[in-house]
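Q: Convert this sequence to structure tokens.
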Amino acid sequence: MAGGRLIQLLLKRNLQSQSNALPAISSVISKDQDTVGSSSVKAIRAIALLGAGAAGVLGFATVASADEAEHGLAAPNYPWPHSGILSSYDHASIRRGHQVYQQVCASCHSMSLISYRDLVGVAYTEDEVKAMAAEIEVTDGPNDEGEMYARPGKLSDRFPEPYPNESAARFANGGAYPPDLSLITKSRHNGQNYVFALLTGYRDPPAGVSVCCWNQRGETLEAALNNARWSEMEYDGVGMGVQWGWGWVQWGWGQGWGWGWIREGLHYNPYFPGGAIAMPKMLNDGALEYEDGTAATEAQMGKDVVSFLSWAAEPEMEERKLMGFKWIFVLSLALLQAAYYRRLKWSVVKSRKIVLDVIN
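A:
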């Protein structure tokens, strides 16, 4: 744009110095130069707008991809039978979910806030729960001699924990700490949907992401990290990451330009933040046999155990909904009574007629 204007000024001065008798030619040349300059300006502006739009789209896609990799894929919304305003838990599903927890989850995950007595009247009878609690041994005491002793479990005991402490849990699970499941559906975003999607969402790693051994250039992970340009490093509890040229290489899992690893011992799950989770796929078709004869498919077991975990996180939900319905009903009656009383008291005032006797 600046070059076009400079040429225009030079041409004007040259023509004016040579002759003042050619105003028509000078005006024609000026108009041509203005047209050329304006068209070039418009072209440059159009290219700039297209470039800005493309950069915005690519930036948004990059941010969305990075957010998905960091926080995990958003879980779908499933139609849970107890999610309605007046809906209650499926107690048969809670019983099956407790069976799934006992046979699949209890070996790694604790439920330290749940007692055996909480199951009475919800999924089992009192006798069934007493027999279930008697199968475990609880360290109690001290006795009269000041010593600790082992006794059979009873209704007031909480569910046993699989590990004595966090260090033992991490050592047995390759450094990962299995979370307590008592409030898992309340402590995770989109709780029930997230837990179900996580349990049933195991997939093979996508193209460009492989189990840690080597990358697409044939380099081992150690060699790749040694040869990388160290511009940024962070540790997020899953693995180590380093910025490498145009792509992002992460020990836990990577995404970008075909680069990525899943460290040996981790498993790919797009719903888990970072995409790599230490827990392997635990729910498989026919992994257990339900007491009521229900087919133990992966989806069925996931639905049942999530129902059980939802009840564990909110055991008072049914009572709360029932109490809320009762209060709404009572307040509705009170509202009708208040409206009738208001109409009764004000009807005399609103219907009276005032006559002014101006003569007397």
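The CA atoms of residues 94 and 308 lie 4 Å apart.
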